[in-house]
Amino acid sequence: MHILQGRILTPFQEFAGRVGVENGLIVAVGEDLPVGPEDRVDDFGDNYICPGFFDLHVHGGKGFEVLDGEVRALEEIAAHLVRHGVTAFLGTTMAAPYQGIRRAAEAVKAFWQSDSVFAPALIGLHLEGPCLNARQAGAQPPEYLCGADQEFYRLILEYLGVIKTVTLAPEVTGGLALAYKLKELGVYPSLGHTGASADLAREAFAGGVQRVTHLFNAMPGIHHREPGLAVEALLNEDVFVELIADGVHVAPRMVEMVWRLKGAKRVCLVSDAVRPAGLPDGEYTCRRQVMTVQDQQIRLVDGTLAGGYLTLAEAVRNLVAWGKIPLREGVEMVTATPARAVGLADSLGSLAPGRRGDLVVLDHNLQVVFTMLCGKVVFRSSDA
Fold first, then answer.
1. pLDDT score of 118 more than 90
2. SS3 category, 242
3. Confidence bin at 269 (pLDDT 50/70/90)
4. Cα dihedral value 183, 202, 262, 133, nearest 10
5. Going by C-beta distance under 8 Å and a sequence separation of 6 or more, which residues neighbour residue 240?
6. What's the whole-number average pLDDT of the chain?
7. 132-164 residues labelled b (16+ CB within 10 A) or e (exposed)
8. CATH 3.90.1150.10 fits 51-341, yes or no
9. Domain ranges of the chain
10. Residue 55: pLDDT over 80
11. How many CB atoms lie within 10 A of CB 192?
12. What is the mean pLDDT of residues 300-318?
């Protein structure tokens, strides 16, 4: 058994103790977990041992993206993420020709069948589009936006088990009906890139839609006479919301407001990372779009925010640095909550016997110094 010793954040409680991992699973957690003569022990002192992080929204990073449709791209993205504590992620596509989405899905299947140690980190695909509102396109290529047609539905049926979630605008042709069909298929719909009214949002939530993609971004803001989707999501206790907590996509005070209204159990921190994430300042081309990286912000040439640069570890550090949200709840928003949002809480997101052996160690500065994926050490810094 491989035993990690340190300050345990389950994330539902915190105590000094040990976590035992064997055959890829967590087998024991406790303050006085006994150590046998053949056990391997990593003592991290009073550093924090947390569940591995789960990012529901990752387009790419380090010069690669999911829509490359290549196993190597997925390998490079996953390798980059585990260095920052992410042991589970949804590879996210943008609006693209259906054949491009199919290539991405086939690459996921091939990656899962490979012998890569990083392959288990990729949980499946998050299709962000193409059924989005062109008026709320953000950095989405407008030429590929469309309604929910039969071809798109057939594509989803073709890759059930690979496609885990779909972001759509309920007001586009067939959008709301598609959301309901997705629920029946076990695929998780999420509302995003939308101008949906409060009434339409309530209708979608009443029909079982329970998630909103990057709240406040690519949707109308809060208005006192037209509350819209954002307010409906904040007031509905069953709805999960994604937040990009970089202080740019959403101001820190707005993040605090969302946390106060929703609580950690309904807020999923996401990176929305795109191809240039993790690269130095400069200009990069992403599928014919020029993106500029400057001061850890990624923008199109017209200034439009084009996705995230931050990692989930940075998001957690931001919450703590902004001074309102406790570390334990910040960790919950990148572990247990996203796992619940896509029905995987029984296997991911917490430190409990039977869960997958995914763990991350944070030092006193909340920097990632160690990552374990399915019981295998996939990253260890020189400080660990």
1. yes
2. strand
3. very high
4. 70
5. 210, 211, 212, 266, 267, 268, 337, 340, 341
6. 95
7. bbeebbbbbbeebbbbbeeebbebbeebeebbb
8. no
9. 2-50+351-380, 51-341
10. yes
11. 28
12. 92
DSSP letter for each residue of 149-177: -HHHHHHHHHTBTTEEEEEE-TTSTTHHH
Amino acid at 136: Q
2-50+351-380 CATH pick, 3.40.30.10, 3.40.50.880, 2.30.40.10, 2.40.50.100: 2.30.40.10
Backbone phi, then psi, for 73, in 5-degree steps? -60, -45
The string of pLDDT tens digits covering residues 136-192 is: 998 899 999 999 999 999 999 999 999 999 999 999 999 999 999 999 999 999 999
Residue keyed to tokens 């109308």: 220
The one-letter code for the residue type at 249 is: H
The C-alpha atoms of residue 381 and residue 56 are separated, in whole angstroms, by 25
CB 47 within 8 A of CB 361: yes
Question: What are the C-alpha distances in Å from 144 to residues 95, 140, 159, 320?
Answer: 6, 8, 20, 39
Q: What number of other Cβ atoms are within 10 A of residue 222's Cβ?
A: 14
Count CB atoms within 10 A of the CB of residue 280: 7
